[in-house]
User: What shape does this take?
Amino acid sequence: MNNEQPLLDVRNLWIKAQDQFILNGLDLRIGLGEVHAIMGPNGSGKSTLVQSLAGHPGYTIEKGEISFDGEDLLTLTPEERARRGLFLAFQYPVEIAGLGNGYFLKAAVNAVREARGQTPYDAVEFLKVFRELAPLVGLGQDFLERGVNAGFSGGEKKRNEILQMLLLEPRLTLLDETDSGLDVDALKLVARGVNATRSKDRSIVLVTHYQRLLDYIDPDVVHILIKGRIVRSGTRELAREIEREGYEPLLTAMA
Amino acid sequence: MSSPVESFRPRALSGSSPTRIRSWDDARTHAEKALEVHAPPDRHDERWRYTRAQDFLPPLARSNETTASAERKLGTELTTPAPSEEILLLEDGKIGDPEARRRDGLRHGVTLRTMREAWTEDPALMKRIVLSSPIRDRYFVWWNTAHLDDGYVIVVPRERPHDRPLQILWQSPNAVVVRRLLLVLEPGARLDLVEGEAAYPNQLRHLVRDIHLDREATLHHALLDAPGVHENWLWTTGVVVDEGAAYHALGVHAGARKARHEICVDLSGSWAQATLDAAVLLPSKHVFDLQTEIVHRADATESRQRVHSATAARATAVYGGTIVVESATKGVVAHQQSRGLLLDPASDINSRPELHIRSDDVLCTHGASIGAIDPEGLFYLQSRGLNASQARALLLRAFALRVLETFPAAASEVLRTALAKRLEVLVRLLVPEVAL
Amino acid sequence: MNTSTDELTPLLQRGYEAGFVTDIETDQSPPGLSEEVITRLSETKKEPRYLLDWRLQAYRAWLEMKEPHWSIAAYPPIDYQAVSYYAAPRSVDPKRPKSLDEVDPRLLETYRKLGVPLHEQAALAGVAMDAVFDSVSVATTFRETLKKAGVIFCPFSEAAVEYPELVRQYLGSVVPYRDNFFAALNSAVFSDGSFVYVPPGVRCPMELSTYFRINAAKTGQFERTLIIADRGSYVSYLEGCTAPMRDENQLHAAVVELVALEGAEIRYATVQNWYPGDEEGRGGIYNFVTKRGDCRGARSKISWTQVETGSAITWKYPSCILRGDESVGEFYSVALARHRQQADTGTKMIHMGRRTRSVVISKGISAGHGRNAYRGMVRMAPTALHAHNYTRCDSLLIGPHCQAYTIPVLEVRHPSARVEHEATASKIADDQIFYCRQRGLDEETAVHLLVNGFCREVFQKLPLEFAVEAQKLIAVSLEGAVG
Assistant: This one.
């Protein structure tokens, strides 16, 4: 890990949801340009971590600090976090029937661009950018007319998330189980989208249950999250070990 | 329609306030006064569009028909329960079952008293019931009080083992029958209750129930009516559900010449729940008018209703379902589903849901569909070798039993069996020629 | 999760853009209603005798009737003797100007300010407009173009004189004067409105439109619209309405009758933006309207689309009588109630013919202390073999003090008919707001997007310019409703 100030710095994070602690003093540092994978069994707190980083109102931060690019993340609203370059690809992308996907994407891109001091896209420019990016995730133009995620298949929803990531050009991307429920072809498309954004000034966190996604996206660091804490960190080899032996040895060691 | 401007339901009665009721006689006087001041509901009240107050007021125009024996048999089949079950046979003015005639006849601390006795022995309890009853200001509840010989008060304590359902069978051959049941479940008590009325030809029957579920109490209530095309009957049921308590009712109805059930539930404590389900299977010329009203008065209260109705020739099924979500409540969930099957060109089904939402933190859904038996389903069964009437019968049976399937699983086996048996009987009444 | 509601406190007072008053000399009848007032009104309009007789019959029937109070709207008693039943700009010649050049420039300016210029060069392309100001029609555009196609589009009072056979045949044939209290009142005192007749086989070459403007104080508007689409014809009609901001309530009781003969189609759209009253519920229009379409012929079709954002009280149930076999009825509605507005609206679909079909889509939005009701009835008569209805009504609640009511009655009398109904009531889903915010949109924008998405099904049914207008109207109405 790099010694400079990390892009994301989470210290001693305690989080409650519905009167239960989900995260118990979690620490996590992610440097610029790094790709981290967070793995863990069901209910270990993976989704809680990324959702609360994005500012989901359902969680109470009981204790701890989160800084993003040196700024205190906890004082920011969800949209301020998004405009500063934090992007969450939802595990279950929300369906909004009636709201046109194209309309929604353009509004979002322009909100973020304006916050960055860039000029907003007009319809023509937006369409041009969309046409460049959409094929990367295998989506056609017809998809602009449809309601946001409404009636999309699981794969289409996940690809829509990746497309939004490409459009919004975030500095930190949190992928929450983006691989779950995808067939191999869809998985490859998603990985292609993610790999296209990899660069020295963009960081990525992959939250996943299986190491399957890691066959296509190579992480710099792998963390194991159990019962609300990171219990081990290591290289890709750690993910392979989990794949072979499961979480059982780690759970037994903890008990 | 009553004006929904004010908070739902509090209706002042001119001249007499129920807070002054202290005895049986007070209650009677109060009701008599109310009847003097108020006229019976008329058709300007949208809830009385399909059955009329006159249908339930004596004297009735009587036909000279005699009872079909099948009708009485349906009513009395409950009298042969499994040996492990308790059964209470309530006849006019006296408790019929010899074992229950002794005050301790109902085991495990359950008390059974007449209303007159209860007013003397436990006036505080009676006052509480009178004042909080969601049906206290209804015309036919006053009417019931004013014409009642006596009623029954049952109090169920927590200790009573809940794996023993209680059965109540109301039975009386009188021409006009006026009945009243007050049922209180103490905190944490659980009861599975199977309740039925036996039918006698040309009867007019009135039954008012006041049910109070204290904190964390649960009542599973199976309501069975007896089909009879020569009777008129009206049930009025009021239920108060306190914090964490649950009321789950499933009615299996065959209707009558004119039959109507008004059921009002106040979800008055947070996390209170109610299920009001019904399977309405109306043979030829029967009418059944179901009017439900659920008022969500507290946070996180939940209600669910599923009503399946099927009508044979010249039968009329009515379902009016009102859901009220009072202001400043949070996290309320209310679902209502009704389905209707018209089995004959000369039958009709009417549905009148009313949602009154005065809080924004709600999720309320309602769905209704009315039509004939699904032709796709018929075709599928016929392609498997069944003839048309067998296929219709099977689909009708599935339609009726679906209500039981989705009824809360915690209901006891005895209760489910009683409901299933009655459902089968009614399905057979609708499609008599087919062996199921 | 509780992102929204706490912060969605209503603090809106956004200007009502149409709230200005036109300073113009007005001839106004003194307040009050009697047979004499009606006779004078009829004389002023130089009406034929049959119409006066009809008005008087209606008036006598009205005297016997009681004001209905079954809606959710609560309001102080209306003094029908305090209303002035006729008001007209002095400059309007009862015989009507021959061309737009003769119209008082102040009136032209009024309509320009409202965004509906009457000069044909400036007018919306392809829209012919009848402009009704208080009790009179001040101008009807593109009449010549329409005449060439055989389409009659003129003020009702002109039609009563010029086309008495048509008026006599159809007036009151869909909404008889005894139909209800407000219809009877309208029949007695109606002032002006539009008359449309589309001859057999003609597809009306333009959108027809009427813009209703109440200007005078202490007056009511009682217009009457009659549209007849003869066999195989087609017409699309739009209606807009505004009024100045005044502290007192003003009465508007209109009647609209549509008749579609065999194979004809009528599309009727309304963007209703009468003054809704202020935040405290002072002022605003009482809008008691009877609208009904009769699909008299086989395979005819009537489609109602309405966007109701204005009025202190809305009482309005545009309905279809599906008499002809295979006729089709549609009702698409967005109704918004904010501040102290009370909207009780919905539809009746009365299926009588075989294989008749109807669709009802209603979207109700309640904000502030607004109260919104969907009240509907679908009736399948024993003759409605294989008829079908689908109804969907959704209510959106914004803020803790608003209310939503849904009362959809179904009556089915034949097993081959199929009726399906779905309804929901909820606040805007927290997860949807969070999703939008995670993509960088602020909460207010998110709510606007979500509300527009909620209404889209209905907006899509409006002609394009009006859909844009409707969207803006909803956005303006909700401005500040989100914290």
Remarks:
- The interface with chain C takes residues 1, 3-5, 44, 46, 327-328, 340-372 of chain B (CB under 8 Å).
- The first strand of chain B starts at residue 86 and ends at 91.
